[in-house]
């Protein structure tokens, strides 16, 4: 059974911010509740492929996770006042936490910075959620910031679009 809930992952990256804003717009359009989830690497829960954390202090990592989630929710509330937003902080691997949270949801939204990697490969979290989707999944690409042509009269408009995605920007 599907409910009117959209789940979006937040990890503090620019591609995550793009996914958050896209998901917020979709939730508002659909009249759905938006669930913003951040999974953090609790002690003993770090993925085997992940590089070791430079700071192994669990309270520090927990505080950092709270800050990432708070920043994500603030971004959405600033962009879409009045949108029903639920925040979830989960200790564990993001692909597992997202799959569990998105069971029976209307949509799972993930950000991807594949074009930033230079080879177009998707990350482990995105691939895992696409391989075993708990519900329909949307992968939102990060907007590339391209330099405008030299001497172009639309330099400011192109930069505004890269920053906001607003085609009607001055």
From TrEMBL:
- Please state every residue range assigned to the domain named UspA: 4-141
**What is the superkingdom listed in this entry's lineage?**
Bacteria
Q: Which InterPro entries match?
A: Rossmann-like_a/b/a_fold (IPR014729), UspA (IPR006016)
Native species of this protein? Nonomuraea indica
Q: Which family does it belong to?
A: Belongs to the universal stress protein A family.
Q: Where is this region: Disordered?
A: 143-170
Q: What is this protein called?
A: Universal stress protein
By its UniProt entry, which PANTHER family does this protein fall under? STRESS RESPONSE PROTEIN NHAX, UNIVERSAL STRESS PROTEIN UP12
């Amino acid at each position: 059974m599907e409910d009117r809930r959209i789940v979006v992952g937040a990890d503090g990256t620019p591609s995550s911010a793009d996914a958050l804003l896209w998901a917020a717009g979709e939730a508002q359009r659909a009249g759905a509740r938006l669930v913003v989830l951040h999974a953090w690497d609790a002690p003993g829960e770090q993925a085997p492929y992940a590089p070791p954390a430079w700071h192994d202090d669990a309270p520090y990592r927990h505080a950092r996770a709270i800050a990432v989630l708070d920043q994500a929710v603030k971004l959405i509330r600033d962009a879409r006042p009045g949108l029903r937003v639920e925040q979830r902080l989960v200790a564990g691997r993001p692909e597992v936490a997202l799959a569990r949270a998105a069971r029976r949801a209307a949509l799972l939204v993930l950000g991807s910075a594949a074009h930033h990697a230079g080879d177009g490969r998707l990350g482990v979290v995105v691939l895992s959620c696409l391989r075993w989707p708990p519900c329909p999944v949307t992968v939102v690409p990060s907007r590339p910031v391209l330099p405008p042509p030299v001497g172009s009269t639309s330099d400011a408009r192109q930069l505004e679009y890269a920053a906001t995605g607003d085609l009607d920007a001055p």
